[in-house]
């Protein structure tokens, strides 16, 4: 049975999808972009600030499911310019303990929703 996870501490979905779905002990979270949850405005000051907002949005979804970044088993990072990888990776890495960091792929794509520079989705388990 699936349970829809929703929180006002992360951006409201901009399409026909849920912030996350919990099935059994596994959480499947939709991709997050740098939308500020309270204002709905994109946070695009620089790539580090943008990535931090993405990670804070993920953190809020995890919290709504009673999980933390320690529960994340898989991440998918989509970026519009691989030249930003180092800065994105530095911010992303600050949310994880390297000893038990999740599996991950990073893919450069031609375009992301709302023309953002980074989108990250996760899978987590209890």
UniProtKB/TrEMBL annotation:
InterPro entries: RidA, RutC-like_sf, YjgF/YER057c/UK114. Pfam families: Ribonuc_L-PSP (PF01042). It comes from the Bacteria. One of its GO terms (molecular function) is deaminase activity. CDD domains: YjgF_YER057c_UK114_family (cd00448). One of its GO terms (cellular component) is cytosol. Belongs to the RutC family. PANTHER family: 2-IMINOBUTANOATE/2-IMINOPROPANOATE DEAMINASE RIDA (PTHR11803), 2-IMINOBUTANOATE_2-IMINOPROPANOATE DEAMINASE (PTHR11803:SF39). This is RidA family protein. It comes from Wocania arenilitoris.
